[in-house]
Amino acid sequence: MNLKKIFYFAALGAGLTATAAFAQDAAAPAAEAAADAAAPAADAAASGEAPGDQTAYIFNTLLFLMGGFLVMWMAAGFAMLEAGLVRSKNVSMQCLKNIGLYSTAGIMYWACGYSLMYTGVDGGYIGTLAPYSWDPVGGDALSTGYSTASDWFFQMVFVATAASIVSGTLAERIKLGSFMVFVIILTGFIYPIAGSWQWGAGWLSEMGFSDFAGSTLVHSVGGWAALAGVLLLGSRTGRFAKDGTAVPMPGSSIPLATLGTFILWLGWFGFNGASQLAMGTIGDVTDVSRIFANTNLAAAGGVVVTMILLQVIYGRVDVTMVLNGALAGLVSITAEPLAPTAWQAILIGGVGGVIVVFTVPLLDKLKIDDVVGAIPVHLFAGIWGTIVVPATNGDASYVTQLIGVVAYGIFTFVASLVVFGIVKAIMGLRISAEEEALGLDRSEVGVEAYPEFATGQR
């Protein structure tokens, strides 16, 4: 019996020892994982960085990236809108111009544009002429509050938007090479210098000018550049009769133009929403949501008001005018999409629709041939949206807003007029009458968008 007891207790002791050893081995990885998880927090604490700073950095960066790819998708919207509103023989050219200008804008904004707009402005008129560099691989500096590459990407897609505005206005008769030279100057120099005055903490920012997401800085700048170009370029052959009457030149595809409008509408949520520039707090996320809602209501207001006015005035509703009414509503709310209440957003967008209905015929009377209606949408509605900011934002001033509108108008129009004038003198702006009649798809691109139907069209 004693021997049995000895074996029994020996076996029991061995079992307990093995169990303890197993538990210790199992606990080791968990302890190591906990230590690894705690290490970043300890490192952050040692460097004076709170874990919340890291979270804000991550979400702010995500906001820029998500907003940026939504605005990048607007390039497709502009391409489809323009492809639908030009004649069949010029569709390939508009597609080519839009992918070309987007790519050129990206390179120029890296080479000099971003630094001119944001580096060393310090209350002045211009930044630094230099290429821009961003965080190194694996960069973890939290001082900026976001990845510098994400900010560059978000700002770059805005400059491409300004160039797209010019493309639509000058469609069907400008030389591809001449247009691309202007895009280089616009995206590398004109837009960045103008943008530095406000978003780069320049003199207008110091004065208190307010333009949340770019009714003036992006859309009116593009509109002023388009106006300068169209005045030098002239109208399409046959667009106006000898007595000055406007001759309709219907676009190739209403479905494409409608698709383009919806794509632009979608992209505008990134355009305005990500201009909150922060998503690291509950308050920021709430404001981004409010911006989305106001942006959508303003576009809807532009559509409904345009439809009503067209029915009352003309007895029929022109779908191309309604599409532009939506875009004018979006441009109008862009200067201040956060502060307005819902009804104010609808009203601001609705007035944008009114602007389209009355200024498109005005341009026809002035014999200004704006193929896609970009000047009423981006220039006129952009001015309206900027001027009305103090009605909803008490920190803004009507006088300062007016000063900003005038300053941007004079600078952009004059600079664009000079550049277009130089290009016209050296390279020529306009294609020949024969090439225009044939269509740019055949004369300059060599690829027809609709080869079965376009040959010899108008």
UniProtKB/TrEMBL annotation:
<feature type="transmembrane region" description="Helical">
    <location>
        <begin position="212"/>
        <end position="233"/>
    </location>
</feature>
<dbReference type="InterPro" id="IPR018047">
    <property type="entry name" value="Ammonium_transpt_CS"/>
</dbReference>
<feature type="transmembrane region" description="Helical">
    <location>
        <begin position="178"/>
        <end position="200"/>
    </location>
</feature>
<dbReference type="GO" id="GO:0097272">
    <property type="term" value="P:ammonium homeostasis"/>
</dbReference>
<feature type="transmembrane region" description="Helical">
    <location>
        <begin position="291"/>
        <end position="310"/>
    </location>
</feature>
<protein>
    <submittedName>
        <fullName>Ammonium transporter</fullName>
    </submittedName>
</protein>
<keyword id="KW-0813">Transport</keyword>
<comment type="similarity">
    <text>Belongs to the ammonia transporter channel (TC 1.A.11.2) family.</text>
</comment>
<dbReference type="InterPro" id="IPR019879">
    <property type="entry name" value="Ammonium_transptr_marine"/>
</dbReference>
<feature type="transmembrane region" description="Helical">
    <location>
        <begin position="375"/>
        <end position="392"/>
    </location>
</feature>
<feature type="transmembrane region" description="Helical">
    <location>
        <begin position="99"/>
        <end position="117"/>
    </location>
</feature>
<dbReference type="InterPro" id="IPR024041">
    <property type="entry name" value="NH4_transpt_AmtB-like_dom"/>
</dbReference>
<feature type="transmembrane region" description="Helical">
    <location>
        <begin position="398"/>
        <end position="423"/>
    </location>
</feature>
<keyword id="KW-1133">Transmembrane helix</keyword>
<feature type="domain" description="Ammonium transporter AmtB-like">
    <location>
        <begin position="64"/>
        <end position="450"/>
    </location>
</feature>
<keyword id="KW-0812">Transmembrane</keyword>
<feature type="signal peptide">
    <location>
        <begin position="1"/>
        <end position="23"/>
    </location>
</feature>
<feature type="transmembrane region" description="Helical">
    <location>
        <begin position="317"/>
        <end position="335"/>
    </location>
</feature>
<dbReference type="InterPro" id="IPR029020">
    <property type="entry name" value="Ammonium/urea_transptr"/>
</dbReference>
<feature type="transmembrane region" description="Helical">
    <location>
        <begin position="254"/>
        <end position="271"/>
    </location>
</feature>
<dbReference type="GO" id="GO:0008519">
    <property type="term" value="F:ammonium channel activity"/>
</dbReference>
<feature type="transmembrane region" description="Helical">
    <location>
        <begin position="341"/>
        <end position="363"/>
    </location>
</feature>
<feature type="transmembrane region" description="Helical">
    <location>
        <begin position="57"/>
        <end position="78"/>
    </location>
</feature>
<dbReference type="Pfam" id="PF00909">
    <property type="entry name" value="Ammonium_transp"/>
</dbReference>
<keyword id="KW-0732">Signal</keyword>
<dbReference type="GO" id="GO:0016020">
    <property type="term" value="C:membrane"/>
</dbReference>
<keyword id="KW-0924">Ammonia transport</keyword>
<keyword id="KW-0472">Membrane</keyword>
<feature type="transmembrane region" description="Helical">
    <location>
        <begin position="152"/>
        <end position="171"/>
    </location>
</feature>
